[in-house]
Design brief:
Oligomer: single chain
Strand content: 15-25%
Helix content: 25-40%
CATH class of the largest domain: Alpha Beta
Radius of gyration: 17 Å
Number of helices: 8
CATH superfamily of the largest domain: HAD superfamily/HAD-like
Structural class: alpha/beta
Largest sheet: 8 strands, mixed
Length: about 240
């Protein structure tokens, strides 16, 4: 069987979301399973690089992580950050301009939000309590030119990434950087939200926990009866351990 690489989402998979505490015992159980398995695990998330660095001080599943919705590749071993080829100087400058506008207007429009800390290559806006990412999407697109950027809704978080940057392009960047070809590998992924569609729809094996949205469940090869980290543990034991 070809070598297997599993790309693993964080929010909704390893945790319940931005404001939820980690189940450390469950995370450590997963870490032990990964260490005993030949499957290579790569975190693939919209979370920031700084978040990944902090998480690595609790548990670590492999050498690499894809962060910022596919815009950055992080190498734990060398503490090295490799931007995706789409992250040109012009794109970075435009991202910074959008960040400044959104920070200045977060409390002056109909829906309020907070900007996720530590983002370097894309933006994440977390809606105020009682509102959703779709509410933030409506306000942002009505007041800001987002041409050249893709917007992804997940729970209360709206992710804004440069066009052509997503989790699948992050996977391609990872494979190119590590000198491997997708055709010679078994690629797998676990995700739960629409931001995971680009990767779940292309890998050889897709799975999700019970809390995944319906569009994700419909395309996955296996849907766990368990939610979040317990769903990931179930998936890993059944298909990768």
């Amino acid at each position: 069987m070809p070598d297997t690489i599993l790309f693993l989402d964080i929010d909704g998979c390893l945790t319940r979301g931005k404001f939820a505490r980690y189940d450390l015992a469950a995370l450590q159980t997963l870490e032990q399973l990964v260490q005993q398995s030949p499957t290579e695990v790569v975190l693939c998330t919209g979370r920031s690089l700084s978040y990944i660095e902090a998480l690595a001080q609790i548990v670590r599943f492999g050498r690499y992580a894809i962060t910022d919705q596919g815009a950055l590749l992080y190498d734990y071993l060398n503490d090295d950050v490799i931007p995706a080829p789409q992250m040109t100087p012009a794109v970075r400058e435009r991202t910074q301009q959008m960040s400044q506008y959104l920070a200045a207007h977060k409390n002056s429009l109909d829906v309020h939000w907070e900007m996720s800390h530590g983002k370097e290559a894309c933006l994440s806006l977390v809606a105020e309590k009682g509102k959703t990412a779709e509410d933030v999407y409506t306000v942002v697109t009505a007041n800001l030119n987002t041409d050249g950027f893709d917007l992804h809704c997940s729970g209360r978080a709206l992710d804004i990434a440069p066009h052509g940057v997503n989790k699948w392009t992050g996977v391609q960047h990872f494979l190119h950087h590590t000198g491997r070809e997708a055709a010679s590998l078994r690629l797998a992924a676990i995700g739960d939200s629409q931001g995971d569609l680009p990767i779940l729809s292309r890998v050889n094996f897709a799975a999700c926990p019970a809390n995944a949205v319906d569009v994700i469940k419909d395309l996955c090869h296996y849907v766990s009866p368990e939610a979040e980290i317990y769903g990931v543990l179930d998936i890993y034991r059944r298909h990768f351990a």
